[in-house]
Amino acid sequence: MDIVISNSSEKPIYEQITTQIKDAIIKGVLKEAEILPSIRSLAKELKISVITTKRAYDELEREGFITTVPGKGTFVAAQNKDLLRESRIRIVEEKLIEAVEAAKSIGLSLDELQEMLKLLYEEDD
Amino acid sequence: MLNLLIKDILVQKKTFIGALFYLVFFVVAFQSLEMNMFTAAIVAFVYLLVIGGFAYDDKSKSDIMLNSLPIKRENIVMSKYISLFVYIAIGTIAYIAVSFVISLLNTPIKTYPVTIELIVSAVLAVSLLNSISFPLIFKLGYVKAKVFNMIFFLTFLFGVPLLIDFVSKADSEVTTAVGTFLLNQSDVAIASELLALSLVFLLISYGISVRLYKKREF
Amino acid sequence: MEPILEIKNLRKEFKDFSLKDINLTLEKGFIMGFIGPNGAGKSTTIKLILNLMNKDGGEIKIFGKDNIVYEREVKNRIGFVLDESHYYEEITVQEMKSIIAPFYERWDEGAFKKYVKDFGLSMDKKIKELSKGMKMKFSLAIALSHNAELLIMDEPTSGLDPVVRSELLDILSDLMQDENKGVFFSTHITSDLDKIADYITFINNGEIILSTTKDDIMENFGLIKGPKELIRSNNSNGFIGIRENQYGFEALVQNKEEFRKLYGDKIVVEKPTLEDIMVYYTRRGINA
Questions:
Q1: A13 touches chain C (CB under 8 A)
Q2: Overall pTM surpassing 0.95 (yes/no)
Q3: CATH of domain A13-76
């Protein structure tokens, strides 16, 4: 797992951590039941306050991404991956709605839109 | 507290050598005092080492470190008082050694044996001198107390042997009465009484020193 | 669980300076940075904690116990690193250690040897032969070798180069892996604390100006830069301190979000460093 913190970013550090961990979980970089570093060792490695890492973990736990077992450690929680996927799918849906509306407004046809989508999707490979 | 004593000795390795030379100097320079040169020599020897200890503490501001450690201030004070006896013991042994060496050489320098009376008078003199100077040092710190201590020291050094001399030659009712009293006592009794007197001085002084040192701020 | 260090209404009066209403709390498992300009009262506070000075009022509790009533017990569990090493210059490191170690009930010789090795300390060198950085490391080695739970440091890094300072911070980081320990670290070199501190207490002129988490400071305080006209029109309220130059102004505020909403694009909002905080609060004192 890689976590990179930017001190000059407007985003609070704890938020940067939660976002990156969420992403890692969604992408599967962090697998279910995988153990996470303790808040203290994470704080030490990233050279930040343990209050910050605790806040990040507390939020992640509140949202169901991770779970802490006393005495054992903090682990990636089980089912969230699907929930996350769903929420991410919703985001994709929203963006597609935007694209569709933008296309319609300039008179792009469905076929042209699909062609664009295909090209863009394959571009990254 | 043993460590505090060891500390005072450890930091003063050089001073001990100097103190040894002082001893030799006293034996040679104070021939006129005859036996009593022992008392003077011991007072000087102890003074040097005690002051040396305080001086080192002061130079390194070690009071701050010592008082940050889990040590009671009473113990810091106590160790200084106990060190007096340690130095008296070391000084006596050194004196005997120095006298022995000098007696082997064929010089006009006369040496005298160490007697119980002499040791007792040394203990008394050391106790008296330091009972007065210690509270000053604990209250003011070594540097400020230096002047007073110098005066006391010199007064004692020259004063006590002179006093002993004067008393033994003087002729008054008081001295006769005291003399009679003392003559009626055995040597052991006199020795114990003088030692007890020394102890009393030291205890009173210790009580004062502790109170002063506890109030001290660094 | 009681705080590892708790100071209530501490007061100390001198001829021309006084420490008043000092209140702060540190729970175990955290590092508190105690910042302030020279002469603000940091060293005095620490000396009062260690009972090197007599307080005029207030209460100091360490591990939940009064620092005077339980002085010896409490000091056994405290490791200290003060700004000047008050050791005897003429003796060796080994000798100095042998004088200090027996006073601690839970002295750990193994730990000491390990630190000596890690720090590259030479046991046979005389104290006076050590560099300033080495003296600090020696203090630290001793402070960390008797199972101390609270580490008190008074300007441990002043006069030291950035490399040594960085090493110290790494050591503190390692120490804090144990959630039962606490560190109280006074300094005017705030860059050391920007990264590592959990809590910040800022003292100036003998008074606590603020005491909160570093996150709170970093997220809410802001350095605002903009054209001079903005401060003319504004009633200067909410500005902790302002600096004007030929081309604009720079100000420290406690609630950057409000200012962002108020002025939007007209201003630049940046995260302040602890140094900025210290400077702006201090300058305000001078100008007020």
A1: yes
A2: no
A3: 1.10.10.10
